[in-house]
Structure formats: C-alpha cells, structure tokens
Write a structure and sequence with these properties.
The longest helix has 40 residues, at 2-41. The termini are far apart. By secondary structure, this protein is of the alpha/beta class. The protein has a five-stranded parallel sheet with strand order 1-7-6-2-3. Strands 8-13-12-9-11 form a five-stranded parallel sheet. Strands 4-5 form a two-stranded antiparallel ribbon. It folds into three domains: 2-68; 100-224, Rhodanese-like domain (Oxidized Rhodanese, domain 1, 3-Layer(aba) Sandwich), CATH 3.40.250.10; 228-338, 3-Layer(aba) Sandwich (Oxidized Rhodanese, domain 1), CATH 3.40.250. The radius of gyration is 28 Å and the shape is globular. The chain has ten helices and 14 strands.
Length: 341
Amino acid sequence: MAYGSSKFIKNGLKRTIACSILIQLILAVLSLHLIMLPAFAGTETGEFCCTCPDYENFEAWLAKKAQLCDNAGHPKEQTSKPANGGSTAIVKKDMTYPNHQLVTSGSSNLNGRIIIDVRAPEEYASGHLSGAMNLYWKETQAKERFDPALTERALRKTGINSSNSILIYGGADDKASYVFWALSYLGFKNLSKLDGGIEGAFKEGLSMDKSMPKIKESNYTSHIVSSLLINESHLGRWLGRSDIQILDAREFIEYGKASLTNASLPLDASLLYLENFKIKNANNLDEILGRHGVEKAKIQIVYGTPQAYSLFYALRLMDYNATILEGSWWKETKWAVNKIR
C-alpha cells in the first residue's frame, strides 16, 4: 500500500514538473514574439517607425525609410493603386556622372594622359599599363599621414607638372582614391581615376608592359587647396558651421563604437563600389547618397580613413562638395562620441 502511494506521488510530481516546463516554454515563446515584433514591424502597432533605426539591418531600414517616410521623418500618406492595377512607381532615366571626366574606363583612349601607377614598386615592375610611371602612394606620407612636401618631391622625380592631364590607377586596395584626393589637395585640376584599377584595365583588354619609361625630372610646385583637408586646429571652426554634414565612411560596426559628434551620418564607402573598386553607376550612387540624407547644398566632412578617400572620390564624381578629415586623431578630441559603455 505504501509502495503504491509512493508511486502515485512520484507520477504526480512528474506530471507537475512536465506541466511547469511546458508553461515556461509557452511563456518564453510569447515573450520572444513580443520582443521581436517591434524589430520586424518598427512599432508596437506593427507600423514602420521613421525615427527608430534598425542598427542590425541598417541599410534595409534606410531603404524602407526612403520608401515610407518624408524628409521630416513622418510617414508618407499612402496613395491608392490605380484602378487598372498598374504601378505608381516612377522610373528614373539613366543618369550620367555629373563630373564624368573624373572616371575613365579601360576601353577609353588613354593617349595624351600622364598615367600614374600608385602600387608598390615590385608590383609595378611585375607588369603595368604601357607608359605608366610609378608613384608609390607610401612615398606621399610621413608617419602614416599625408605629407605635401614629400609628395611634391615625388611628383618632380616622376616628371609631372600641374598642367598635365593625369590618369591614376592602383590595385584592389583603392589607394588610387587616396592619391586622387592628395593631388586634388595639391591643386591639380585635370585628374581622372581608372575605373576598376589595374584588374579592370586588363579585363578590358589592355596589355601588360614591363618596360620602364624614360623620365625627366620636372620643376613642379604645388598650389594647395586648403579647404580639402581638415586638421586639428580647424576642426572646431568647421563643426561650428551650419552648412556642413559629417559622413563616417567606415563600416557600420565601427560607427557603432564611436563617431565624430552625434550628428555624423554613417555611410560605408564600400556600398558605392563593385568588385575591385569599380564605381557603381550614377543612378545607384544617386539613390544611395539620397537614402543616406547627403545634401548637395552642404559641405561633406568625410572621416574614417582610408575608406574616406573612396567616399570622397565618389562624392566628387557626383558633384558634391566634400573635404577630408585624415587619420583617427578625432577620437581624442572633445567632439568624439564613445558609444560603448
């Protein structure tokens, strides 16, 4: 009898424990559903939230925001579909780059250009475009920062003058965009970048050359455009202006750790390029820049080097007024915002 009672009690306990586990699982599922609902829908009512960024899927959130929200961050009024069931979407005409002369395809006629290969000397020696001269990008820097005096000397040795029409190319690291910015800062007017770099040129059918062109040293003198570089002593004055936008060119995860003021906008430079830093078409660039809130009426302060140089180039190609904040020294200023607690 005692044995039967004990067995009954044990079975009862097992059923109680099983029911408890089942209830906990149901509550966990319900809690997960409640937590995830706002993330998927944007608000507790299931509506998209124009002012609630989804940082885990930021680009998708931005695209949806551009579709559903106005410039003030309010939901757009929903229009009904045409009676015939057609689409209300407006098809944009194919655009051309506003400053199309800044980009050159491998299929273009390269005659009359001074071609600069910015890769390392050993890469240049292994094969380069016919007639190209080597200006290694590291020869323009001191302590990993751009040095105008060093660059001026390197340009003289390469035989370059400020009146030359210059075509810049590099490898898959897009150091060509850095040299494009550096020469722009030194006052060069007639610059272009070979789209897709050396690999893109070879894919277009251009042949590889290993011969070294004869070089006569020039008497080049720079004419610095100071507005294209923001240094430590100028940052406060720039940030006090009302006509600027601050763009962070790094990957979004880096922006999530720290940024230059709370007003900076994340714009990962890689979004603007295809393989081997071949620039996306003008329609794509226009859509991406618009989605990120970049305004042509303002000056873009671009930081987060080296990615900032690639973003600077794309902005210039699309006729934006961009400038560069070089290096990571901004992290030590009072305007840096540390987002990790």
